[in-house]
């Protein structure tokens, strides 16, 4: 199988978690506490992926300068885009208990803004998945698992908002299916465009993804997890971090 196609399939597969979350909202919604626990675990997994997969790889490829510049640049880019999306109704896109229908009319498009925000979150994650294949050792299972876990509650919250705004299930699943395809495309393009690139470029790109992911965690996932599971959020996140750390070391072996 061509490497670019493998990257696209992994990106699409992780994006399909959005469809799973939407299905939960449409047919059998879990408790907010359970979703927050998934967020806490996913946050720990993503932090481990940022530290041991992305930033470690960026440093090995390009040194401190490329890794640091990309890391800060990714956080700045994400923050600027996140502010723009938030002002259009997407500020609560990872909050499992938020219902845009309570404060926004259907015409305000709160659910759609959340979906656009989900695409914003998914771009650096998908690029990171595609780039992880370039070293020839296979996809980073830690990144795939982390992205999958973070996408489930995002799909749930946005689908709930779209339902409150009167959108049909066909519309909702069509939007999320499109975003899952876009995730696969981003992973494919990341793999194709960066194949054979200068190590400093690879390092900066990987670090940009890392910075964007970490900024997203602090802005969206961690606040939700600590609000709904204040007693155990830290412990659950540590468990997720340990799970990803072990998985990454087994992959090295």
Features:
single chain, about 250 residues, mainly alpha, 7 helices, about 80% helix, globular
Write the layout of secondary structure elements.
Elements (H helix, E strand, L loop, with lengths): L2 H25 L4 H59 L19 H23 L8 H24 L4 H26 L4 H30 L4 H20 L1
Helix pairs in contact: 1-3, 1-4, 1-5, 2-3, 2-4, 2-6, 2-7, 3-4, 3-5, 3-6, 4-5, 4-7
Describe the protein in words.
The chain is mainly alpha-helical. Helices cover 82% and strands 0% of the residues. The protein is built from 7 helices and no strands.
What's the short version?
By secondary structure, the protein is mostly helical. Helix content is 82%, strand content 0%.
As a percent range, the share of helical residues equals: over 70%
**Secondary structural class:** mainly alpha
Beta-strand share of residues: under 5%
Cα end-to-end separation? 24 Å
Poorly predicted segments: 98-109
User: Gyration radius, to the nearest Å?
Assistant: 17 Å
Please outline the major beta sheet.
Answer: none
- Pattern of helices and strands: HHHHHHH
Number of helices: 7
The outline comes out as globular
- The overall strand count is 0
Quote the average pLDDT. 80
């Amino acid at each position: 199988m061509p490497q670019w196609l493998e990257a696209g399939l992994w990106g699409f597969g992780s994006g399909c978690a959005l469809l799973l979350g939407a299905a939960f909202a449409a047919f059998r919604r879990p408790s907010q506490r359970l979703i927050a626990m998934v967020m806490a675990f996913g946050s720990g997994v993503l932090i481990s992926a940022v530290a041991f997969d992305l930033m470690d790889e960026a440093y090995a490829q390009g040194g401190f300068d490329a890794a640091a510049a990309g890391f800060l640049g990714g956080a700045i880019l994400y923050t600027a885009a996140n502010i723009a999306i938030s002002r259009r109704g997407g500020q609560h896109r990872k909050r499992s208990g938020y219902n845009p229908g309570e404060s926004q009319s259907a015409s305000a498009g709160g659910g759609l803004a959340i979906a656009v925000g989900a695409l914003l979150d998914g771009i650096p994650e998908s690029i990171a998945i595609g780039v992880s294949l370039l070293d020839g050792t296979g996809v980073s299972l830690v990144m795939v698992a982390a992205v999958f876990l973070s996408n489930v509650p995002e799909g749930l919250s946005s689908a709930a908002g779209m339902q409150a705004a009167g959108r049909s299930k066909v519309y909702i699943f069509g939007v999320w299916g499109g975003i899952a395809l876009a995730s696969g495309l981003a992973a494919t393009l990341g793999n194709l465009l960066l194949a054979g690139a200068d190590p400093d470029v690879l390092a900066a790109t990987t670090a940009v993804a890392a910075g964007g992911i970490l900024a997203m965690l602090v802005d969206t996932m961690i606040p939700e997890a600590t609000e709904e599971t204040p007693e155990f959020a830290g412990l659950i996140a540590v468990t997720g971090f340990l799970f990803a750390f072990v998985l990454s070391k087994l992959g090295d072996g």
